[in-house]
Amino acid sequence: MATESGEHPPIPPEGSPCWIEIPARDVEKLKTFYSALFPSWKFTPDIDVDSMTGIKTSQYSFTRPKGFGGGIVQMPEDIPLGEQAMGYGYTVYYFVNSIDETLGRIHELGGATVLEKKAQSENGFFANATDPEGNRFGIYELHPSMKD
C-alpha cells in the first residue's frame, strides 16, 4: 500500500505482518466501528470495488509503523458468520492505553467482550472482543510499571 505522498514504504523483513484483513458483510458499518474505536487508523476515503469479483474493500493504514495496514473486505453472502473461540486461529492484538476505556467504547459501538481483562505476567493486561459482525480481536495494555 502506498503512503499518502504516493511513496511506497520500505519492504519489511520476511515474516513481518504486512496486512490485516477483517471480513465483513457490511463494509461501511465496520469502517465506522474501527475508525471510531481506533482514531489512529487512517482509512482511504473511497471503498474499492474489485473489477473482477465485485468485492468491496475499505483500506486502512496505521499511523505507525508506516506502511502497515489492512482492509475491511466484503465476504460473499454464502459464507456463514463464524465464532472463533480463543485458542483457535489467529488473534491480532491492538495496543491501547486503557483496556477498561476501550472495552467501554467497543460496547458503545456495538461490539462485545468475549474474554475479560486478564493479567499477562507483570508486563500488562489483555482482553478479547468482537466487532459488530463477530470478528474476534485482542487489545493489550502495558502494566503501569512498564510505562515509565
Automatic annotation (TrEMBL):
InterPro entries linked: Anthracycline_SecMetBiosynth, Glyas_Bleomycin-R_OHBP_Dase, Glyoxalase_6, VOC_core
Superkingdom as given in the UniProt entry: Eukaryota
Stretches of the chain forming a coiled coil according to its record: none
Pfam families in UniProt: Glyoxalase_6
Residue intervals of the VOC domain: 16-142
Annotated PANTHER family: GLYOXALASE-RELATED
Name of the protein: VOC domain-containing protein
